[in-house]
Amino acid sequence: MKDRILDVYLYGRLAGKLHQGEGGRLSFFYDDNYLADKEATPLSVSMPLAREPYLDVVARPFFSGFLPDDLIRHRLAQVLGVSEENPFALLKEIGGECAGAAALFPEGEKAAESGVFEPKILSEEELAEKLDALRRRPLLAGGEGIRLSLAGAQDKLPVALLIDKNNLAEHKIALMRGGAPTTHIIKPPIERVADSVYNEFFCLKLAGRLRLPVANASIGFAKGTPYLLVERYDRAWDEEGQIRRIHQEDFCQALSIPPEQKYEREGGPGIMDCLRLLERQSARPAVDKLAFLNLLIFNYLIGNADCHGKNFSLLHGGGKPRLAPAYDLMSTAVYPEVQKKLAMKIGGEYDPEKIFRRHWHRLVVDTAGARKALDKELNDMAMAVRQAVPALIGELAEQHIASSIFDAIGQVVERRVRQVLEEF
Known about the structure:
Blueprint: E1 4-10, E2 13-20, E3 26-30, H1 32-35, H2 56-64, H3 70-80, H4 87-94, E4 102-106, E5 120-121, H5 124-133, E6 157-164, E7 167-175, E8 184-187, H6 196-209, E9 217-222, E10 225-231, E11 235-237, E12 243-245, E13 248-250, H7 251-254, H8 271-281, H9 285-302, E14 313-315, E15 322-323, H10 357-361, H11 368-398, H12 404-421
Antiparallel strand pairs: 1-2, 1-4, 2-3, 5-7, 6-7, 6-8, 8-10, 9-10, 11-12, 13-14, 14-15
């Protein structure tokens, strides 16, 4: 079978080519002109700039990491009429706007990022229709010139928040086409998961109150249905008023781990793998390792069992990368039917009810000083979260934002705080 080829762009420049060869095996080659630029950014820390090709064992996990997970990927493949096991075919159709600064197009067919497709401003009614359509057509794939791809196991829609020319104080939600960059991600309610929008909103706001690095988010409504509007940290407006991409990669991509193995018990990264990655690759390893540990503690306290390697990312941009802001924060413990086992074990233990100080201590070097420092982070975070929950509930009530899920999260937090503090 003759090779099939996708052009791979980074920051709008041709970075290389993704080949699909015999048996569907993938390989990636950097472009010679791209390699000649001394300031060129690698696609991934797993694929440093080099003239030799990266074969399937490295290329497949990285490029598959741009695609949705599990059931959404299955539905997407059905809509597009391709195999869900064929990341090349999927990216050929929807790879124009991915996480980070990468974009993929059929060889020689790159559309301009602006000017070819005008943004489609959505009325509230049109937005409601698009969000409803996501259940039948994930990422709105297969029509209207839309080429959007995002990882994750939840339906979502990348959009741009554009200034209303008739009222500069207002913003309009726009659908971007042809691979043009977006600025926000809309997450509609998850079916059969009560108040999922309010749950994630509360957890993101709670993290922000504790000064943890986290994506900005707000709640919007489309014909009475709430949705979460999350600002993309991998996008920014430049001085000319254009949306620019910032490159990022999740930890599974950086470690060449396929997305279907994102959970540690299925071969995915564990906490120590993540810490070693930050030690090797971060521009500020000490700062980022501490931030990572604090995010782990926070996720434990809010009862988020789905804290896996794809929910942490490296953010590139000038020199070595740094830990990206957190996203996908949700208390899964409030739902009795949801898996209780942690995505990444803490000190050798998956069951959150069986995790105590000795388990946390295994995450740091075996010295009294390191254990004392970690104890301080645990105690400070536990007390801060305990105090922040009722304050945030009150603040949101003043903004007429309320949900019974807030109190349920508070109950989980109180149980976890007591468990953390009982040995101190």
